[in-house]
Design brief:
Elements: E1 27-32, H1 36-51, E2 55-57, E3 65-70, H2 75-91, E4 95-99, H3 105-111, E5 117-118, H4 124-134, E6 158-162, E7 164-165, H5 176-180, E8 184-185, H6 188-200, E9 205-209, E10 224-225, E11 228-229, H7 232-240, E12 245-248, H8 261-265, E13 272-274, H9 282-288, H10 294-307, E14 312-319, H11 326-339, E15 343-348, H12 366-389, E16 395-403, E17 408-412, E18 423-425, E19 437-445, E20 450-453
Parallel strand pairs: 1-2, 1-3, 3-4, 4-5, 6-9, 9-12, 13-14, 14-15, 18-20
Antiparallel strand pairs: 7-8, 10-11, 16-17, 16-19, 17-18, 19-20
Helix pairs in contact: 11-12
Length: 454
Amino acid sequence: MHSNPPDLRPDLARARIPDQRRDGQPTIGMVSLGCPKALVDSERILTRLRAEGYAISADYAGADAVIVNTCGFLDSAKAESLDAIGEALAENGRVIVTGCLGAEPEYITGAHPKVLAVTGPHQYESVLDAVHGAVPPSPDPFIDLLPASGVSLTPRHYSYLKISEGCNHKCKFCIIPDMRGRLVSRPAHAVMREAEKLVQAGVQELLVISQDTSAYGVDRKYQTERGHRAHITDLARDLGSLGAWVRLHYVYPYPHVRDLIPLMADGLVLPYLDIPFQHAHPDTLKRMARPAAAARTLDEIAAWRSVCPDITLRSTFIVGYPGETEAEFQTLLDWLDEAQLDRVGAFQYENVKGARANDLPDHVAPEIKQDRFDRFMEKAQKISEAKLAAKVGQRIEVIVDDVDEQGATCRTKADAPEIDGNLFIDDGFDTLKSGDIVSVTVDEAGEYDLWGRL
């Protein structure tokens, strides 16, 4: 088994496509790039297609057409999306593009003029129309039945649960509000209905996602409908009543976040907060158009830990932001020493077309960005290594993600799938299966991963 690489990109998700089709059934392939929010969009598209009688293919060769759900957050992600589109065209020839990069259709068609259609993010009906035009549906009413849980691109035991779309913030490095619009929250009762169906279908872990999870419901004025209030604290409490693990992603550190911590201490919600702090120096944060109160953030972190000592804090940071001086970067390193975050990722700043940060003065040279990234990750790695070493000898609960001939790959409550570490069981794993939640004793710790025994 292998451990996770230290530079694992937290914005990358990959679809696991179920391949079940009958002879002659019209078949659509799917390539899903980008964050887990895009993965949810892909699941919704494929669920609709399955209901209309289409089969879903995991490869280009077996498909009548291919949908590429793209990412457009960073220039490197755009390049990756263009590469994926080009590969799909070369292997299949009939390609429909959707997702965040679809907000720039000329950018896509300029590079790949032979794509059949380009639609923007969460434009489900437009995607379906494009599929109908390329590959007409041919459902068999006696065979093609929509499964109760829809189509899932993650293992059966966990699922992403999107609670809102869009964002009201205007961070200078980000174009998500331009691509996905302002915050639009789903009704709380609709979120709960979806969550209940997922748990009934065997999902053991709900991963709550949005662009800004802690702002959930503000656009709906926190209204109550059908017994459920559209507020993140109420929603978290309601989700926690379902009996599954509930993990909160992309939580902006508003003051009311402190109201979530008692729910974690009581076991209703996993003691895990994914908060994008981005930086620690007040001047850098101001140039980002982010709140510039790093000292108060340290106070908040201390308060959270006083209520819930087991809380795991994950965050991402940008190094080499325009105007970042060596002194500002050193402040970030010093802040990291004080904050002692459990899970940390970093990006080297990139210009993104349409972002206001592009026009800032004093862009940092590539070699300096790389040096700062390396120094930042070295410090983060040492903190992670020390924190994991302290877990040796402890008995903890883990969820089993995969079992093969080498052993079982599991996660603790401190680990989100794809972006955090793993716990590996190398002996006595024969009776385990994906989705099991078991108690293990930690025997060994690495930089990002643990090893244990039942």
